[in-house]
Design brief:
- The chain is α/β, with parallel strands linked by helices.
- It folds into two domains: 83 residues, Orthogonal Bundle (Arc Repressor Mutant, subunit A); 205 residues, D-Maltodextrin-Binding Protein, domain 2, CATH 3.40.190.290.
- Helices cover 40% and strands 24% of the residues.
- The chain is built from ten helices and twelve strands.
- Strands 3, 4, 5, 6, 7, 10, 11 and 12 form an eight-stranded mixed beta sheet that branches.
- The N and C termini lie far apart (45 Å).
């Protein structure tokens, strides 16, 4: 790898993660190496790209402008220099990242149809948190991300593919189980169990709801079964999309969420410079599956 590309890798990875230490872990080098390469590029450009502080790094105003201008050229340069090292089977693999509160029914139907039409393409699906998702897209570790958050920049394409009402899973003995529906205000004193990929999206929903008192968020990194069991035991509540709420697990009850910020939007984000044919076919198919009402918005 050339010195120029190595320096660019360090700058963009540090910018994406806000930390030299995290950038070093991603690039599998020492933190001192990341720091030296960033300083070398700053000296070459005669521009200070980062503010350094005890909690990490963040781009200066000049750094933000430079990164925005250079990002597309960097991705193109990396594509050209690394294409010959790409595994031959990679073009027949579609990697999908999920970081969404809703839309599983839509995604399942779309992926099933894609697999039926293109059985030679392997589809890999994984949960991913919102913060590292953009970096994973840029490094081609993931081809497309479905998220409830608004997440894009000048190098990515995006689209709205679904909107779905949210529901709350309560223990069967919960007092709110006797009400026809609930709002965010009703959940003010509750412990809301969320998986790591959903955390930032739930925070965004709470901000949009504008309630004076919000439920306390409790991270739950276990399986869906663990999450449901905690609800059954009265240790918290959780969210899911309406299409997943036709049957309630034993000792629980679903209640529709109404009022502000009660509908989750499913956005797709992918790298415009990604030429993979499987990705282009999948995006085209997903667009054909979109509800006609969404196409008009």
């Amino acid at each position: 790898m050339s010195n120029a590309l190595r320096r660019l890798d360090c700058v963009f990875t540090a910018a994406d993660h806000g930390s030299l230490r995290q950038a070093a872990k991603v690039l599998r080098v020492r933190e001192s190496s990341v720091s030296r390469n960033i300083v070398a590029l700053e000296q070459h450009l005669d521009v200070k790209l980062f503010h350094r502080h005890v909690h990490g790094v963040h781009l200066t105003q000049a750094g933000q402008a430079w990164v925005a201008a250079a990002r597309g050229h960097y991705e193109g340069l990396r594509d050209v220099l690394t294409a010959e090292h790409m595994p031959k089977g990679d073009t027949r693999t579609l990697r999908i990242g999920l970081s969404t509160l809703a839309g599983r029914k839509f995604l399942t139907a779309t992926i099933r149809r894609f697999v039926d039409l293109y059985p030679d393409v392997a589809v890999n699906i994984e949960d991913i948190e919102q913060e590292p998702a953009m970096a994973a897209l840029r490094r081609r570790q993931i081809d497309i991300v479905f998220t409830s958050a608004v997440m894009s920049d000048g190098t990515c394409a995006k689209g709205v593919f679904e909107r779905e009402r949210l529901c709350v899973l309560l223990s069967a003995s919960h007092p709110l189980g006797r009400t026809p529906s609930v709002s965010w205000a009703d959940l003010a004193r509750e412990h809301l169990l969320v998986s790591p990929p959903q955390h930032s999206q739930v925070c965004a929903l709470l901000a949009a709801a504008g309630v004076d008192k919000a439920p306390s968020l409790r991270p739950c990194s276990g399986s869906d079964a663990t999450l449901v069991q905690k609800v059954q035991l009265g240790q918290g509540i959780t969210l899911a999309e309406e299409s997943a709420c036709s049957i309630a697990p034993e000792f629980t009850i679903w209640k529709s969420l109404h009022g502000p910020a009660s509908v989750a939007q499913v956005n797709a984000v992918w790298l415009e410079s990604n030429p993979k044919r499987a990705l282009l076919r999948f995006v085209a198919m997903a667009r054909r599956q979109v509800n006609p009402k969404l196409r008009q918005t």
